[in-house]
Amino acid sequence: MDTKKITTTAVLAAFSLVLMLLIRFPIFLPFLIYEPGDIPILIIAFLFGPGAALGATFILSILMAVFTGLGGPFGAFMHFLATGVFAGCAGYFYQQHHNKLGAIKGLVIGSIAMTAVMAGANLILNPIFYGIPREQVLQMMLPGILPFNLTKAVINSVITVLIYKKLSNFMRSKSLIKRGELKE
Question: Which family does it belong to (predicted)?
Answer without folding.
Answer: Belongs to the prokaryotic riboflavin transporter (P-RFT) (TC 2.A.87) family.
